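Box 4.2: Ligand-aware structure prediction
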Amino acid sequence: MVLCDKGLFTLHTNNTTYQMKLGACGVLLHTYYGPRVEDCDLSYLIRYADRGFSPTPEEAGRDRTFSLDVVPQEYSACGMGDFRLPSLDLELPNGSRSADLRYKSFRVEKGKYALEGLPAFRGEEGETLIVVLEDAAAGVDVELYYGVLENYDVITRAVRLVNRGGHTVRVRQAASLCLDFQRGDLDLITFDGKHVLERRPNRAPLLPGVRSAGSVRGNSSHQHNPFVILCEHDAGEDHGLCYGAALLYSGNFQAAAERSQFENVRLTLGIHPWHFCWTLAPGESFTAPEAALCCSGQGFAALSHRLHRAIRERLIRDPWAGQPRPVLINNWEATEFSFDAERLARIAESAAAMGMELFVMDDGWFGARNSDEAGLGDWTVNREKLPGGLEALVPRIQALGMKFGLWIEPEMVSEDSELYRAHPDWAFQIPGRGKVRGRQQLALDFSRREVRDHVYGALKKVLSSADVSYVKWDVNRSLAAVWSAALPPERQGEVYHRCVLGLYEMLEQMRRDFPHMLIEGCAGGGGRFDAGMLYYTPQIWCSDNTDAIDRLRIQYGTSFCYPVCTMGAHVSAVPNAQTGRSVPVETRGIAAMHGTFGCELDPSQVTPEEREIIRRQTEFFKERQALIFQGDYYRLSDPFQNGPFTAWEHVSPDRREALVSVVCGPAQGAPPFLALRLKGLDPGLRYQAGGEGSYPGSALMEAGLPLPLPWGDYQARQFYLTAL
Ligand code: GLA
């Protein structure tokens, strides 16, 4: 609900309230964001005092109590007396670096706004508030967009700059979100890691100064995720005030939180200002990507439930929103580059017998791709490996009752490729400097239309040559040596963003041309796991690390923002290729059910008993997929605490069904008797816990479910609960 009353703008969702108010000097103040409150003007919370070294704007005259450095603002500027984190930084033709924003107008539109060329939540039944601020000297209007997804407790934001003046302005920074808090006692949680160990939650109280996390790698990155949480010091899974902020963007980003001198916090989130500079000529506009805000007064579980539901129902698009996903087998870990049609067909045959529904041919099927040193960019079938092409292979797979999928890496090129030999200038390299290789490959300049057209043309031909139901869209290096031969020197600061726009455009084109195809995102595993990608790719390969025990941590961290149905997770062979660890197949399967579930091994290399276990797990997963994907997800333990087990739970929306998964750690002598307290059940119902007896929901939640004593390392159990 959007209420606008004499300069007071209030947004209500079912459980939260967000408010801003036109203040002195025409400055748009931020008054409140938090659990829902009755309608009132919350600007009574804003206090004014003469603060030393906090200057006042000219319009304030002799009033020394109004300083941009002190008041909470809706969208911060810079260079004009606010020394805290900027949201907007403009370079005017005279070389000055500043921005100064005053309220201009507002309008309310039915339905939630969409953004051309950028991902955004949908909300046909929602509303959009647009508040326009103006920088008169720059001639720039700043349109602040607010989308209200009432039933999801999500407020989305986007920012559109319009140059209405007579001269060109250079945009040095345009954050998507600025959020001021009139308190300083908050923790920041960021989700950080590295290749093969992504999204570990790192939580710390904010100290005076700025703490930031971001990426300048061209991708959202393995190292930091464009999702952060701010929360009260004592907030936990089930209690405490917390805020989640996600950026729907897959390129360079910065999340920054500043605790300032007067114990206030400002959070900004948007495109990273490093090497960003957008030239805005008169009449032109620039749109900063969407950010989504969510708030919970009851801890992280409720925060995640709200975000998960919004992502599942309002970000992921048809035909995949709320729909089952195929259980797939991928040949990568089984074969890497060494395969031919016969080997693939054999893998597919055994996979079909295990109940798998989709066979994915990974890297190595095209060009001269016999190792990671060659072939990227040559998107034609390698006829030595696949003599009959896809035209022959796909029907063979389909004859087994399976669908067929393909791996691609469109944004990259190998120096040893026809494409690079024909167009060396299409790969990033700064003139006069050396090449920067990652995995022995170079990155294509996706800001250039002719590059994208060429790559897409080749891909479309392959994808049209057979019935391809799925594509795994990978990217396997960070961008470096970024310089575009197609842009003048003063526009080089646009290249990173133009690459992301180019990526989105191609993904959208692929969705249009192949509307029923499922696209899975991937970036050396989880290097581009963000809400922006989920708009195009409903699932993302969560990590190149398929070790079930490491995966528990990776998937746990991922789950704070992203729902289980977005996490690509597979059963792979042991000893694990990344860690050398051996974990029972039951456990590997249960870990993979914390995701889309599939297989990444050669079935002929595992014992018949293990194949039978995987077959049963596949069957079980298919039967429970709706519960796992659509149910509320509860983290029952924190795997980073090195406790005796890691546990999680899915509860159906009507609370009549639940699936509890428990994975124990390494074996120990005389293990303790443990009981696991469940969550989210109906206290008044009685549940049958598989063959373990039946108990009241209240007992299972307050007293717990007894766990069997483990025998051996990394044992796992699932308990399927149904209401009697
Ligand atoms: C990346 C992906 C893997 C696999 C390889 C192929 O690392 O994350 O799953 O597809 O590329 O080269």
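In the box above, the bound molecule is alpha-D-galactopyranose. The chain has a mean pLDDT of 97.
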